[in-house]
Amino acid sequence: MSDDNTLTVAVEDYPIAPPLSPGVGARRKGPKTLPRLPLSAFSPPNSGVSESFPLPPSPSTVHPDRVVDASVSVLTEWKKQAASAKELEGRAGAVVVKVATVAEVDGLEAHGVPILSAQVPFNLEDPELPTLPTAKFPVGLATTFTKPSEAAVKGLTAALKAGHIVDIDVQVDVADGDKAWEDLEEFLTKATADTAGAGTIVLSNILPPPHDLELPIVKLLSHPTYMSYQAHVASLSLFPNLFLKFLPPTWNAPTPPTPPPGQETAAISKEKKEWKRRIKMYLGPAVEAFGFQRVLFGSSPSPTSHASSTLGDWYEIARESFGELGVEQEDVDAVFGGNASRVYAPRP
User: Fold this and answer.
1) Element (H, E) at 226
2) Could you tell me the pTM of the whole model?
3) CA 79, 343, 183, 150 torsion: positive or negative?
4) How far apart are the C-alpha atoms of 243 and 342, rounded to whole Å?
5) What fold, for 63-343?
6) Rounded to a whole number, what is the distance in angstroms from the first to the last CA of the chain?
7) What is the pLDDT of residues 23-69, one digit of tens each?
8) In 3D, which of 120, 117, 101, 100 has the Cα closest to residue 109?
9) Cis previous bond, 208, omega within 30
10) What is the full DSSP assignment across 244-283?
11) Domain residue spans in the chain?
12) Cα–Cα distance measured from residue 346 to residue 342, given in angstroms and rounded to the nearest whole number
């Protein structure tokens, strides 16, 4: 304090804060959760002479440690595709197989592929649950949902109370908007009302949902079908023991191929980028609502899809789309393997 009553402060006692970046305003009032950064962000490069920090890994280099395919329809074809997919070399693990009849379960192990689980057909409106065969791996139920009915509600309730894993291929026209989604939610609400959290539901054909590729992305952002998807995928996440399968979409177009390095044409590259942009639009809200632990990768599309898709091609597009969301390695490992292993694991 000086003689003229003026307060004098030493600059070194109060370091000057760095200037705000252009466009950054005053900090909001109230607590603010700061992001956790890895220690590598504060470490200089190994050379010790570079002026820049190392960049994060490219999405093209982020692979899961193991790939568990939660949706396989034809095991012989899957085995052939897995052997020829260089992207999966050393990573292909167990599979979840859908069979056409209960009798086919006995012959699955003869194919030489690790079976995580098998799924037998189940008619939701059939009052009797199918008798499941005894196997070295869990056997669950696979069915479709087309419209709500009291019989379907009773069928799903019975399956869940029995502790089964029920895979439901959603075959309602979500292009109709809220009505189709509301029918699905009403059906699930009634079916799970008295199950006390028993059993597990796995939905497919809504991540991504059926879609018209001719609709420009700029229009899709504000399109009623996309707005409905965002709202209702969040509502679906509120159901306990409910998971989503991340499968090749029903877009009436084949999955873009992944040629060997150096052989990708400009047309193929453009098509893959377009697919990934659309996939990420649907994947982002789903992951935000369900979290990384409730999404399962699979390679066989819904039976309603008539477009071709191979294991290697879909794996590459699905993996890159997921990686471009900026997720951690542990999240990639969960979606492409760990989650399926946990959901379909044998019950104690």
Assistant:
1) helix 224-236
2) 0.82
3) positive
4) 12
5) TIM Barrel (3.20.20)
6) 75
7) 444 444 444 444 444 443 333 444 444 444 445 556 667 899 999 99
8) 117
9) yes
10) EEE----SSSPPPP-PPTT---HHHHHHHHHHHHHHHHHH
11) 63-343
12) 9
